[in-house]
Amino acid sequence: MDLTNDLLPTIPLFRSLDTDSLARIADAVKPVSLKQGEALFRKGDDGNEMYIIEEGAVKIVLPSSVGEEIILTVLREQSFFGTMSMFDGQSRSADAVALTPCRLLVLQRDDFIHILQQDEQALRTILCDLSSMIRKTDDLLEGLCFFNISTRLAKRLLDLAEQAAGGTDKPVAIDLTFTQKELGEMVGATRESVNRELKKLREEGIIDMNRGTITISDWEALEELAVPMDF
């Protein structure tokens, strides 16, 4: 794959850059491969690089002291992550673990900062991205505290569908590269509870499940479920 012309222009952070800047980034990045289940970094590690997903899926995980974990998000091709620690110089705030075999591109902090110093639009984009990450984390924590499992699962399925759509029309199906246990970790519930909720959604005709995919059959009904009830 031609990084300058094919991959890098699809990354939101780099869309405003000209060909010369993209070529410099292509020269600076280094490839890294991960096996399924392999950790790229752990919470508390030093953060001197950002990462671009060329192929595969990575889960960003918040571990807990009791051995459980909360999956903050699942990132796929054309996503980038790891920028927060590069800005504040602090350690990693979560784990990054490969959900599938992955190919990533690594960009070192010095090269990254040099790019931002030369491109104001790229700086604006990354600041918006960091703000979005913080908002999503706030929404997740709010949901875990105040929403029931039906609402949390509906919201997560809609989020996964939006990611799968990639800004295009609504996808036919969500490709489940994760287990029901991992889906439970995304909504703060057990695998058994998620399984019951999925079965109920399927019986009500809101979703259809087949061979590792979930198809949203009734978007309006799922969107209604994602809105918490007022009491």
Q: What can you tell me about this protein's structure?
A:
The chain has 231 residues and is α+β, with helices and mostly antiparallel strands. Helix content is 45%, strand content 22%. The chain has nine helices and eleven strands. The chain has a four-stranded antiparallel sheet with strand order 1-8-3-6. Strands 2-7-4-5 form a four-stranded antiparallel sheet. Strand 4 (58-63) and strand 5 (69-75) form a beta hairpin. Helix 7 (180-187) packs across helix 8. The longest helix has 27 residues, at 120-146. It is globular. The N and C termini lie far apart (54 Å). The relative contact order is 0.13. Pfam families: cNMP_binding, HTH_Crp_2. InterPro entries: cNMP-bd_dom, cNMP-bd_dom_sf, Env_Response_Regulators, HTH_CRP, RmlC-like_jellyroll, WH-like_DNA-bd_sf, WH_DNA-bd_sf. This is Transcriptional regulator.
Summarize it:
Keywords: DNA-binding, Transcription, Transcription regulation. It contains nine helices and eleven strands.
How do the helices and strands line up, and which of them pair or pack?
Elements: H1 3-7, H2 19-28, E1 30-34, E2 39-41, E3 49-55, E4 58-63, E5 69-75, E6 80-81, H3 83-88, E7 95-98, E8 102-108, H4 109-118, H5 120-146, H6 149-165, E9 174-175, H7 180-187, H8 191-203, E10 207-210, E11 213-216, H9 219-225
Antiparallel strand pairs: 1-8, 2-7, 3-6, 3-8, 4-5, 4-7, 9-11, 10-11
Helix pairs in contact: 4-5, 7-8
